[in-house]
Structure to design on (295 residues):
């Protein structure tokens, strides 16, 4: 375990985690919403530091990033946990796998240090490291230590995130971050609350922060039939991207697969025709780089 960076001690043995916009107030011997940041004796600790649940060499296009180091490989790194509870999650086996039993099992495996992560990337001739599959915000300390070493060795750092990180987290990773793909789940706050366990506004704020700080940015929206596939919502999404982020910002529109989702197995897959209709909405709205995924 490692003591967390972004937290504040409160009265009665409680702490407030400041890694993401939940700003969880955590009682002693309890975790926040992510399940992997725990208050132990009035100090907050990361339960997953140095214990990855996934390391893989991927095409960078899998992140998906189509306009940053195209045609290259990236070393992907993940640890257990997530600050969202997305019912459509495709990596729920690791993002939602928290609690004493799985965490204890991972803590008993051999640790993998940030130095070893960077060495692995160099050995496999990956010009970048991606913090992905789960939400990097909840393993901030592990990601940040790796990012610092990666930058020292000339590697680029990529976050694949739900964009719900706090201003404190953003400020800590900014000097070491070169690119991000942010999941913009919907342009409807009710959808965020009901189906993701989050809120829309912080994600929009962070998208603007990334763009203002000249971080390469691409956006992904998973299109879920009957839940977030309203044309009106996509018109709003396209208008926001064009106005606040720029018409050149890539937008990935991905199809939903119920078989691999966490809790929405009873829904239908996204028709290709729906994705093409949304692509046309984006083009009419002024977006220049729209890509279809999971087709």
């Amino acid at each position: 375990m490692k003591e967390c960076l972004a937290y504040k001690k409160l009265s009665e043995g409680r702490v407030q985690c400041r890694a993401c916009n939940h700003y969880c107030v955590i009682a002693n011997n309890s975790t926040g919403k992510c399940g992997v940041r725990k208050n132990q004796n009035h100090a907050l600790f990361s339960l997953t530091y140095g214990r990855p649940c996934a390391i893989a060499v991927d095409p960078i296009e899998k992140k998906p990033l189509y306009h940053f180091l195209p045609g290259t490989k990236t070393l992907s790194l993940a640890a257990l946990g997530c600050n969202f509870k997305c019912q459509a999650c495709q990596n729920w086996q690791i993002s939602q796998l928290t609690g004493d039993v799985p965490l204890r099992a991972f803590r008993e495996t051999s640790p993998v240090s940030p130095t070893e992560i960077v060495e692995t990337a160099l050995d496999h001739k990956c010009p970048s490291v991606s913090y992905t599959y789960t939400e990097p915000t909840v393993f901030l300390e592990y990601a940040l230590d790796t990012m610092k070493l990666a930058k020292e060795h000339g590697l680029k750092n990529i976050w694949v995130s739900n964009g719900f990180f706090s201003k404190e987290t953003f400020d800590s990773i900014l000097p070491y971050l070169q690119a991000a793909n942010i999941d913009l789940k919907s342009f409807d706050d009710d959808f965020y609350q009901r189906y993701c366990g989050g809120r829309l506004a912080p994600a929009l704020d962070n998208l603007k922060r990334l763009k203002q700080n000249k971080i390469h940015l691409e956006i992904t929206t998973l299109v879920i039939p009957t839940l977030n596939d309203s044309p009106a919502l996509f018109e709003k999404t396209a208008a926001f991207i064009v106005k606040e982020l720029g018409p050149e910002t890539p937008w990935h529109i991905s199809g939903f697969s119920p078989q691999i989702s966490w809790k929405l197995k009873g829904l239908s897959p996204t028709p290709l025709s729906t994705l093409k209709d949304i692509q046309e909405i984006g083009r009419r709205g002024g977006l220049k780089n729209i890509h279809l995924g999971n087709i």
In short: The radius of gyration is 19 Å. Residues 54-293 form a domain with the TIM Barrel fold (CATH 3.20.20.70). The chain has two domains: 2-46, 54-293. The chain has a mean pLDDT of 96.
